[in-house]
Write a sequence for this structure.
């Protein structure tokens, strides 16, 4: 079975590198983007199985990118996890409003993040996760 592809979007290079390491170590294929506009372009080129995106970024932010992706029939099915250092009632409202499946507060625990990704992929009907491949 093929490995699931995760698109990670963040404008902070150190955090992006840390997220990539954690997600790759769990056995996922990873691609990256540094802002919302680049993420939209990346999704159009090769759709991921899940998107993990920061909210606060220059240019097109995570809320705006998620809304655009959810309005496009080619990408509307892709689950989006948003992440932010600030998670209040308004942030939660907007995450739901634009179609994100979750809003996580930074900093993220790598094990919890990977578990959340695996749970979401299973809940949306993905056929395998990295740990499932050896158990078939």
């Amino acid at each position: 079975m093929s490995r699931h592809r995760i698109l990670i979007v963040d404008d902070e290079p150190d955090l992006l590198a840390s997220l990539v390491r954690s997600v790759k170590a769990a056995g996922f294929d990873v691609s990256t983007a540094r802002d919302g506009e680049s993420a939209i372009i990346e999704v159009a080129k090769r759709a991921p199985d899940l998107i993990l995106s920061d909210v606060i970024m220059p240019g097109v932010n995570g809320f705006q990118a998620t809304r655009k992706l959810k309005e496009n029939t080619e990408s509307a099915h892709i689950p989006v996890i948003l992440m932010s250092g600030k998670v209040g009632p308004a942030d939660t409202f907007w995450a739901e409003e634009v179609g994100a499946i979750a809003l996580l507060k930074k900093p993220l625990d790598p094990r919890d993040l990977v578990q959340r990704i695996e749970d979401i992929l299973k809940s949306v009907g993905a056929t395998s996760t990295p740990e499932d491949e050896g158990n078939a």
The helical segments are 13-25, 36-45, 62-71, 89-98, 110-123.
